């Protein structure tokens, strides 16, 4: 994906102005939603290192394994609760569309985020359906 391409997170901004600086560690997410969007973009472009680095150390897996048959195709933010600058926690409910081979699918999750060392981290989530 090129920096001038539309960001996969659906923000309407270019990837190079939106999630790519977060992936490169040039800046950090200021809200839980921004972190959630950047994590989706990381899955989209295959940057599992970023996904792992932004997962809370108490809940993250020891390693990330790519799913080569899965292609992410769209993100919809359904709801947010807290997760703004100055908050210590927040929740983001989203629907992420994907294709597994030729089969379409959807991940519907309410994710929990927390601030640790002044940075947002994904903690865990409840999957619907």
TrEMBL record:
What InterPro entries does the record point to? Answer: NTF2-like_dom_sf, SEC_C_motif, YchJ-like, YchJ-like_M
**PANTHER family reported for this sequence:** ADENYLATE CYCLASE-ASSOCIATED CAP C-TERMINAL DOMAIN-CONTAINING PROTEIN, UPF0225 PROTEIN SCO1677
The record's SUPFAM superfamilies line, in alphabetical order, gives: NTF2-like
Q: Which HAMAP family match?
A: UPF0225
Annotated YchJ-like middle NTF2-like domain ranges read 31-125
Protein family: Belongs to the UPF0225 family.
- Name used for this protein in its record: UPF0225 protein K0O64_05465
Q: What is the lineage of its organism?
A: Bacteria, Bacillati, Actinomycetota, Actinomycetes, Mycobacteriales
């Amino acid at each position: 994906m090129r920096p001038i391409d539309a960001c996969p997170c659906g923000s309407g901004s270019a990837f190079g102005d939106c999630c790519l600086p977060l992936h490169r560690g040039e800046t950090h997410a200021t809200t839980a939603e921004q972190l959630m969007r950047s994590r989706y973009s990381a899955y989209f472009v295959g940057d599992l290192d970023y996904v792992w680095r932004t997962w809370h150390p108490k809940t993250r897996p020891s390693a990330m394994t790519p799913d080569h048959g899965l292609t992410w195709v769209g993100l919809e933010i359904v709801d947010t609760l807290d997760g703004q600058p100055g908050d210590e926690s927040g929740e983001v409910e989203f629907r992420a569309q994907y294709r597994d081979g030729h089969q379409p699918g959807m991940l519907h999750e309410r994710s929990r985020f927390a601030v640790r060392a002044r940075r947002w981290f994904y903690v865990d989530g409840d999957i619907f359906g």
